[in-house]
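WARN no homologs supplied; continuing
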Amino acid sequence: MTEHTTILDRAVGAVLGSAAGDALGAGYEFGPPVPEPTPILMQGGGSFGWRPGEWTDDTSMAVPILQAVARGDDPAAEATLGGLVAAWAQWALDAPDVGIQTRQVLAGLGPREPVPTRRGACGATWRPSSWGEARTAAASRLAARRVHESTGRSAGNGSLMRTVPLVLAYLRGDDGEEERLASAARAVSDLTHHEADAGDACVLWCVAIRHAVLHGELDVLRGLDLLAPAARRTWTERLVAAEHAEPVAFTATNGWVVSALQAAYAAVRSSISLEDALVRAVRSGNDTDTVAAIAGGLAGALYGAAALPEEWRAILHGWPRLRADDLVAMSEQAVTAR
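OK structure emitted
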């Protein structure tokens, strides 16, 4: 391969790896850890009856980001961010699974007065007629802040799980590209996740994926200088802890963005292949689709799209009626257009 071809393969691999991890973990979500030698299969099932190879909300929320990047839109622009909010609100109307925090934010986009409710698969209710009546980035950030103020926390893993496609917009070698990527990652995270840990995690992961795509190296510490000074020591300790642990060490709390990132990092760091990284992530249990989707973005950037098992790629699919080849085409367009 030429250098350009190798970089393109790794960029596409980041997107495919994330989607494949999502689909692989779907059938094991909310279950206990799965120890060796029990095989991890692309079997579907799980709480929402996913079909084999079908991705979940993790990749569904990433698709509008990938579409925007493929069009050449500026991911950090208010118009682009508003477009993402509108796309997510429309998707969520009929989605079988929407994360709790994301659902609360989307429900907060509409009018404050009561409107008819609809019961979700997890037993929660939301207001579908209100979703999207104020589909702007500013409205979404406000709703995210209100959720945070109401609950006292908003650092779930829902913004980290969807962040991979942003990297494809920032693969030039120009000075300042990492800083621009970090700014965009935080801006997209802030649409639904107000707490700083969520934005920090997206910054660290995006910068690590970009470095892996361009150089084929694993360096999750690289983005520390792009965080607020007060957060750097804390995140250093968290990442070092993950370097010396297995993903299962973070099972109980991997719905929290910090533990999800730690579990994903532990899976990738100890892996020998893309498949191995995804299987290690799924074995950790609990929020398996999300941890594996997060791990898949970085592992795919390291190992490349060609490393994805063909039998997985052949059945990979999901909202909105896309398949693996569609993700590849959009990813290639996003990279070559810049």
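Residues 112-132 have pLDDT under 50 and may be disordered.
OK
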